[in-house]
Amino acid sequence: KKIEAGIDIPLGAIGGVRLAGVYNKRDGYFFHPNRAAAGNDVVRSGTADNKGGRVTLALRPTDRLSVDISGEYVRNENIVGAFASYDFNAPGNGPGADCSQNGFVDAAPLIPGGQCIPLNSQVVDSFGDRSSYNGPNTALPLNPNIQDSYAVRGRVEYDFGGATLTYLGGYRRTDQDADLALPNYIYYEFGNAVDTQSHELRLNGETGALTWQGGLFFYNEKINALRGLYSPFIGPNGSFLNTFSRDTDSDSYAAFAQVEYAFSDQFTGIGGLRYTIDKRSGRYGNYGFRFNTAPVAPTGAPPSILDLEQDNEQLTWLAGLNYTPNAETLVYAKVSTGYKSGGFDSVGAYDPETNTAYELGAKLNFGSYGEHLINGNVFYYDYKDLQTPVLLDPSVGQQVFNAGAATIWGVELETAIELSPTDFFSASFNYLNARYDELLASYAIFDTVNPDNNGLADLDPGPAIDQPDLSGNELPQSPAFTITVGYDHIFELGSAGSLTASVFSRFKSEYFLGSFNYRSSRQEAFSQTDLSLKYQPLNEAFSIQAFVRNIEDEQPLAYANFVSAGPDDNFDFQFGAPRTYGVRIGVDF
Q1: Could you tell me if 378 and 360 are in contact, meaning their C-beta atoms sit under 8 angstroms apart?
Q2: pLDDT computed for residue 394 by the predictor
Q3: What's the sign of the alpha-carbon dihedral 186, 187, 191, 195?
Q4: HSE-up of 293 (CA within 13 Å, CB side)?
Q5: Nearest CA-CA partner of 90 in 548, 516, 418, 571
Q6: Are the beta carbons of 550 and 528 closer than 8 angstroms?
Q7: Is residue 346 a contact partner of residue 399, using CB atoms and an 8 Å limit?
């Protein structure tokens, strides 16, 4: 059940107020037979229970001054889709003593014993029905992920005549309690508060052939988190394998300027600069292993505290050229650089990420009223130190590795054509080639000699470090081909109104969900098609629409990763939504 509503209330000639709200409640997409058989209260995951409201005030005191302010509150109380987990420690599922069984290979033959990785294991196929599979251990609760978010944002703009001064600002606080059940463990989140604020002051205008803008930007983020990985099977009351606090404070300052100069009626050049300073500090506390401890938060200061700091600065730029041979056509070329600040995780610091992007494209509008559209472009991205997050061991948490280099290039085409006053066609085609040129990382492993050895960062027992190199692997979530096709037709019913039939289909070729390109993290090519039929009575305020999404009932991988924690070695999966259908009623007044 989903309800959305909004109303605009005029405040005379000076402006108005808009009130809007949303309520959404849905049963879980995923059923877990093991929990039903054990009599658990919660046997489904992937639920939704969301509500929120927003108030927006828009004021126009004078022709030159505009003020927009909005505040909102959102509460989400969802049980996230539980992991479907394949246990490599179950009889017959392991790699064997020499890593030669069930698709495993020995990642480090020079090291005695078996350092096994599931490179060619094809275990995702064991979950034939992606809407029904065994969930976490029945001794673990499936708690909802509760998130409360408060936000206020505003925009003040004043037109001086030859220039416009704009202020943009916002503040958001999010409090989260997100206990996450793994196959045999549960992450208890005892506190996770995030405060963010941003402020931007911008001045822009036109002077003859020159269009310009410049400004200042500030962003601050504070995170205070406390969580622990709990096992109910160690000790009479269970035990925490690890409990850690993560307190960080991040500031970002920037100054920017951009100009566009018209050399003629057909040619314009664009240039821009942005200088960014990022400062990040953190205090990471570790309570370590807590034996025979009920699932409660620790008290007192952590026995181990690590103070961390990361400062970065970067100058980025943009240069481009636009050619408009007529009012309907734009041909453009541009080169720009990008930057993402470095940081630190529970393992150590990682470097900033930079990118040089090249793009060449064209935009064409044609038809009597510009109702036809064709856009196309080619692009090439050259990444240095690409930040790649990987979960190797849940007891440690996510780690970030810098890829030495990565190259991404592709082609994009899209069109929207009005075939007739009642027929509309749209389509897009995307080709993407995205690979790591160099990525020195670490493996999660199935150690056949020492089950508690979960990681492998050195492939050679010698004095030099020989890290696993994932160069040549495809970037996650990067299908080579993505194609969409859509068609709408309006049936005019005279005095009875109109009926609009719509079909939209998308196709994705195969892609991987993880940087290691394990076979079980590969999503095969698939398509998903949506249909809808909307009836609109003539001169009436209401409409009714029937719809079905994902007719094929394809549930692509949303997550796939091999993780190792203590004696446990699992390949964990999450899946997309199944086929859904419904009826939507709308009223405008």
Answers
A1: yes
A2: 62
A3: negative
A4: 19
A5: 571
A6: yes
A7: yes
Cα angle for residues 506, 507, 510 (degrees, 5° grid):
145
> Per the structure block, which two tokens stand in for 391?
């979960």
Alpha-carbon Rg for the chain in angstroms: 28
The token pair that represents 393 in the structure block: 């061991």
Quote the CA–CA distance of 485 and 504 in Å, as a whole number: 6
Tokens 């090291």 map to which residue? 111
Least trusted range by pLDDT, from 63-77, 212-226, 366-380, 478-492: 366-380
**Burial class for 161, CB neighbours closer than 10 Å (0-12, 13-18, 19+):** exposed
Q: Which one is predicted more confidently, 44 or 395?
A: 44
Helix (H/G/I), strand (E/B), else coil: 37: helix
Q: State residue 478 phi and psi, 5-degree precision.
A: -130, 70
What is the DSSP-derived secondary structure letter of residue 111?
A: S
Q: What angle do CA 55, 197, 195 make, to 5 degrees?
A: 95
3-state secondary structure 67-108: EEEEEEEEEEEECCCCCEEEECCCCCCCCCCCCCCCCCEECC
- Tell me what pLDDT residue 453 has: 85
Q: Measured between alpha carbons, how far is 417 from 364 in angstroms, rounded to an integer? A: 11
Residue 28: exposed, middle, or buried by beta-carbon count in 10 A (0-12, 13-18, 19+)?
Answer: buried
Which tokens is 274 given? 């942005």
Q: How far apart are CA 182 and CA 66, in angstroms?
A: 50
State the Cα–Cα distance between residues 122 and 378, nearest whole angstrom. 35
Query: Which residues pair with residue 548 across a beta bridge?
Result: 531, 581
Q: Give the global pTM.
A: 0.90
**Residues 583 and 546 sit within 8 Å (Cβ to Cβ):** yes
CA-to-CA distance for 332 and 377, rounded, in angstroms? Answer: 9
Dist CA 201 CA 164 (whole Å): 11
Task: Give the closest residue to 256 by CA, choosing from 168, 161, 156, 386.
Answer: 168
- pLDDT digits 0-9 by tens, 434-458: 999 988 888 999 999 888 888 888 8
Neighbouring CB atoms inside 10 A of 468's CB total: 18
> What is the pLDDT at residue 565?
81
3-state per-residue secondary structure call for 184-210: CCEEEEEEEEEEEEEEEEEEEEEECCE
**What number is the average pLDDT over the span 562-572?**
88
Indicate the Cα dihedral angle 117, 121, 126, 127, nearest 10°: 60
Rounded-to-integer distance, Cα 282 and Cα 251, Å: 12
CA distance 79 to 73: 20
Token readout for 90 is: 């179950």
Helix (H) or strand (E) holding 36: helix 33-37
Asked if 520 and 121 touch (Cβ cutoff 8 Å), the reply is: yes
> Per-residue pLDDT tens for 529-553?
999 999 999 888 899 999 999 999 9
